[in-house]
């Protein structure tokens, strides 16, 4: 789910500042007499990822401005390495635990968030996850055990489109829900190649995200048992409109259509409710941000997600429309 991390960063900022303000204002006699750090955890597990990531930080309090303090890694990181593991059960039988190590990433840019940059401390593991397991996250600080549970989400079947996708008429993207999946978001990527005139470069392979064909790209299943038939309608005419608006009209350019990727991302029930609650208060300064959490002895979320990609060709009628009717330099593919 593409926007999930950005939503979390905003929520984490508000949560950290809110906890800091609460701690600073709740004790008028002695500002730090009852201070105890609050562990904040964020983890979204995907069985198809080669690395599992968990972000662990803490709420902080101290003299001065909370935003200024957030730029200091010592203010939100624990000064020691935490004991972090995932303990799984399949049919109530224990499976080998997944242990996490620490790594510092260096890809954060100024303005990504109020927190320190360009490096941030993360917990990670490259151990394989079992899609059938119920996982319990365990984090040990010096005096507290922080826990949370999540099942994982496996693969599921896209039932439309089949071998080709047709944009000459309005249709529905169709699929069957998967066990433990509650929220589904659909994205469409149009792949194409182009050759720029006057160059000797190889054909460029490009991608174009097609957005406005969906009125609402989100679907919520009735339950998390799996097997429910779900669908999201799309407007075929908007596909051509997006191509015309987004592709630059360059004289003598040569382009060829490629596959269309239908990407359906599924999120667990916890992730769904977390997004719903944060969307409900986004942009409002008059509402208190709910502290939705499934972390015991801490706050934050542990959830799961998974995505499937169905790659299909344009229908013959759709390709003819693109090549013969649109002035975008598209040509028929030759063998």
What's the gist of this structure?
The chain is of the alpha+beta class and 335 residues long. It has helices at residues 4-25, 66-70, 73-76, 236-246, 269-281, 316-325, and strands at 38-45, 52-59, 83-90, 93-94, 98-99, 101-105, 120-125, 134-140, 145-151, 158-160, 164-165, 171-176, 183-195, 204-210, 218-220, 229-234, 254-267, 299-314.
What does this structure look like?
This protein has 335 residues and is an alpha+beta fold. It folds into two domains: 4-152, no CATH class; 158-266 and 309-325. Helix content is 19%, strand content 37%. The protein is built from six helices and 18 strands. The chain has helices spanning 4-25, 66-70, 73-76, 236-246, 269-281, 316-325; strands at residues 38-45, 52-59, 83-90, 93-94, 98-99, 101-105, 120-125, 134-140, 145-151, 158-160, 164-165, 171-176, 183-195, 204-210, 218-220, 229-234, 254-267, 299-314. The strands form three sheets. Strands 1, 2, 6, 7, 11, 13, 14, 15, 17 and 18 form a ten-stranded mixed beta sheet that branches. A hairpin with an 8-residue loop joins strand 13 and strand 14. The chain is globular. Mean pLDDT is 85; it is low at 13-34.
Pick out its properties:
single chain; 335 residues; alpha+beta; 2 domains; ten-stranded mixed sheet; five-stranded antiparallel sheet; 6 helices; 19% helix; 37% strand
Topology:
Blueprint: H1 4-25, E1 38-45, E2 52-59, H2 66-70, H3 73-76, E3 83-90, E4 93-94, E5 98-99, E6 101-105, E7 120-125, E8 134-140, E9 145-151, E10 158-160, E11 164-165, E12 171-176, E13 183-195, E14 204-210, E15 218-220, E16 229-234, H4 236-246, E17 254-267, H5 269-281, E18 299-314, H6 316-325
Parallel strand pairs: 1-18, 11-18
Antiparallel strand pairs: 1-2, 2-7, 3-4, 3-5, 3-8, 6-7, 8-9, 10-12, 12-16, 13-14, 13-15, 13-17, 17-18
